[in-house]
Amino acid sequence: MPADNSCITLPGPWEHRLIQANGAQFHFAEAGSFRADSPVILLVHGFPEYWWAWRNQIKSLAEAGYYVAAVDLRGFGGSDKTPHCADASILTDDLACIIRSLGAKKAVLAGHGRGGALCWSAVSAYPQLCAGLITVSTPHPRTLHRIGTHLTLRTWRQTLKALFTDFSQRSLRDPQKMRKMLEQWSAPGNLGAAAHYDIYTQAMRLPGGAKQPLDQLHWILFSQHTAGGRRYLKESANPVRLPVLAIRGVLDPLLPARAWHRDLEFARGTYRFAEIPHAGHFAHEEQPEAVTREIIDFLGRL
After folding, report:
1. Element at 110 (helix H, strand E)
2. Which of 55, 60, 102, 108 is most enclosed, with most CB atoms within 10 A?
3. What pLDDT, on a 0 to 100 scale, did the predictor assign at position 242?
């Protein structure tokens, strides 16, 4: 059965565009009026999702007067799935190149999960291109690479599953297994993310749609044992003097609140840690109105 790529251009109060950046083609959904003198709000999804994860924020941010672009990372959704795209340094450079390709002087980066870690890295490596940082369910990447009790047993179980590539690829292409994973990572009974399991499964069924995201997870697991990984972690540790908003779902089963306790080692500017009640790992989908309010309030203070 051929892959159904209709999930890439789902209709809504946005337009779909393709853009060339850093030697690859990227898909994104955009809304709002672009102004070269105003920061772009670049929304970056996490695993196992794609741009659709930000569907609840795109319209509200545009109505608040911002130009918004929700991008598919390299290897995900409608963006290119180039060979050897697991290296986080390449993915970090992608974000900087996308900002430049959009013609923006600066961007506010907003990322969830793995995408949030890349946003941390981008503001560390390219502060001249960034006006602020918003993360959802994402402590600083140096914290995530440390061994310790800041990660839960469920996090380690999911990490170990990712080592079994063939099994994991089949799971990501299975609608019921995708639904179960989204439910397990969410607050009990909250279907804000899990109700869209079929759409996320469709994206994983695209050619390369499951393999490359898993390759990126494998790279994270072993990055400290490679020269490229150590270089990435070193470059990610530069002090971030931009305003930072860190959002966590109170019921996140993967990352307890203590995982954010060392953010201030790296965040040297204004820093706000906001917890969202009745939300798990996908807070922006589980409690979209609360998360959107936090984001708009943060943007209004820049």
Report:
1. strand 107-112
2. 108
3. 97
Reduce the DSSP state of residue 68 to 3 states and report it: strand
> How far, in Å, CA of 47 to CA of 38, rounded?
29
Q: Which of 90-99, 159-168, 199-208, 262-271 shows the lowest per-residue confidence on average (mean pLDDT)? A: 159-168
CB 274 within 8 A of CB 245: yes
pLDDT number for residue 146: 61
C-alpha 249/C-alpha 255 separation (Å) is 9
Q: In this prediction, what percent of the chain has a pLDDT beyond 90?
A: 75
CA distance 131 to 163: 36
Cβ neighbours of residue 147 closer than 8 Å, sequence gap 6 or more: none
Count of helix runs (H) and strand runs (E) in the chain: 12, 8
As a whole number of angstroms, the distance between CA 106 and CA 97 comes to 11
* The pLDDT of residue 175: 95
Using left for φ > 0, alpha for ψ between -120 and 50, and beta otherwise, residue 77 falls in left
Q: Find, among 121, 122, 5, 114, the residue nearest to 49 by Cα.
A: 114
What secondary structure does DSSP assign to the chain, as a single string?
----GGGTT--SSSEEEEEEETTEEEEEEEES---TTS-EEEEE--TT--GGGGHHHHHHHHHTT--EEEEPPTTSTTS---TT---HHHHHHHHHHHHHHTT-S-EEEEEETHHHHHHHHHHHH-GGGEEEEEEES---HHHHTS-STTS-HHHHHHHHHTT-HHHHHHHHT-HHHHHHHHHHHSPTT--TTGGGHHHHHHHHTSTTTTHHHHHHHHHHHHGGGSHHHHHHHHHHTS-B-S-EEEEEETT-SS--GGGGTTGGGTB-S-EEEEEETT--TTHHHHSHHHHHHHHHHHHHT-
Q: Per-residue pLDDT for 199 more than 50?
A: yes
Considering only CA atoms, which of 81, 94, 106 is closest in space to residue 3? 81
